[in-house]
Every structure is written in C-alpha cells, then in structure tokens.
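A protein record in our archive is deliberately plain, so that people and models can read it alike. The tokens are whole numbers drawn from a learned vocabulary of local backbone shapes. For reference, a complete record is included directly beneath this paragraph.
>
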Amino acid sequence: MEIFLQQLVNGLVVGSVYALVALGYTMVYGILGLINFAHGDLVMVGAMVALQTMLFLMGAAPGMSPLTMLTLSLAVAIPVCMMLGYTMERLAYRRLRNAPRLAPLITAIGMSFLLQTIAMILWGRNYHTFPQLVSTAPLQPVAGVFVTPIQVTIVVGSALIMAALIVLVTKTRLGRAMRATAENHRVAALMGVDTNLIIALTFVIGAALAAVAGVMYASNYGIAHYGMGFMPGLKAFTAAVLGGIGNLGGAMLGGIVLGLVESFGAGYIEHMTFGLLNSSYQDIFAFIILGLVLIFRPTGLLGERVSDRA
C-alpha cells in the first residue's frame, strides 16, 4: 500500500506538469490544426531563463527571500517565453497557414532543433543544478509515503492555473473569440474577430504555460539542461492525444492519466517483467499508450468524431 500511495503522489506531480504543457499543444491545434513540436522546447527555455535569473539575483541580492526570488524568476521567464511564442507564430507559422499540412509540421520540428541549438550555445552542454527555492524536506502524511512542499506547490499551482484557463476560455470575451476562431477562421473574421491577434495570443498563452511548467519540472528534479524539453514535450503531446487533442479538458485528463500510468509503471515494472526491466524504462509506457490510442481510439478519451466539411 505504501508503494501504491507513493506512486500515486509521484504520478499526480508529473501528470500536473504534463497537463500544463499539453494545454499549449491542444490550444494551438484547436485553432490552427497545427502540432507545434517546438512547444516542448519552450519548457526548456522557461527553466533556463529562470535559472539564469536566479543565479543573477543570488549574486546581486544574496539576502533575498526564496519566494521573492522565485517570483522574480517567473516574472522574467514567462515574458521571455511569451515573446518567443509570438515570434515563432509571426515568423515561422503565419505564412504557412494555407500551405499543405506537412510544411508547418516540418517547420515546427525545425524550430525545435533551432531552439535547442541556440540554448546549447548560450548555456552549454552540461547539466545545471537548479536552485531549490521551495523546501524539499519530505513530509510524511502517511507512514511510508513521502511528500515534499515543492510537490504540493506543483499540484496546487497547476490546478489553479488550469482552472484559470478554463474560466478564460469559457467566460471571457477573449475566450469567446478563441472558440469562434477555432470553429471557423473565415466566419469569425467576417463577424469582426481579429483572427491574427487571437491566434497570436493563443501561442502567447501556451508559451506562458510552458514557462511555468519548465520551472516546475526543473524545481522537482533539481536540474536544467538544453535538451530537457524534448521528452516532457513528447509526453505532453501524447497526453494531449490521449485526452483528445483540441479539447482542454482532455489535455488535463490526459496529462494526469499519463503521469499516473508512467509512475505506477515505474513502480511495478520489475514485478511485471519478472526483473527483466527496471524503473529506468518508464518512458516506454507513454509510447505504448500513444500507439494504443491511435489504433483503438484516435479521437482520444474526450474527443468527438467529427465529419470532414464539404
């Protein structure tokens, strides 16, 4: 039971991060029908910019409180990622909206490699220790189950951000314009919606979520690296597909489910394979799920089957 509860906690933590990143994928796909494979690298950029800001603040103001330092680091990382997301949309994707679907897909992969290369030039190939500004001292709410304050912060923070996004999309004028643009670009434009602005804001909001997820991911594992965004981005894409890409609730559900499956798989894989595999093979579960979903339910858990327009 202790192993089960511990893996449940770990799964909720990592699943919350996957859900935040998956929301960026699903928002862009819902409006443009584009899989932005460079989105995972915005997670890396957010973490690296926050790390650089923390190191600067530690040297400039050694007595600054950890909470203030974390807040200022996020205040720098989020706008940088937002500006980067807007730049990608404006320079790389806008001209390809009417191109064959393969063109923006290849462009997205190219943007991913470009961001990783620039990050490698700026921060080097080495792994960097990410400052632990939130306590990592384990709490023990149940005998044999350990939870750290940073894990609690990640889960609660992710839940609040996801709730705020749902309110934004369903209750505000901007959200109404986003839903109209997702339904039909041309009709929305005829009704007075500035579709270029709405699409750009979608990229910007997704980039902000990626920046927060990057700081959470790096804080949880204590490291940052120029290639750290690739695997979380790929798993978040799997989560978006699992939940039903284009569906916000599906992205959240897919992220949590994928995190739990991966965590329980890591905890029990040795027993399931009779010692042949260990927890270092936990990544295989994400790709097994992706394959099963694409074969048996391509629309995802909450996706709906939609007929093509004439």
Summary: The chain has one domain: 2-130+144-296. The CA atoms of residues 199 and 266 lie 38 Å apart.
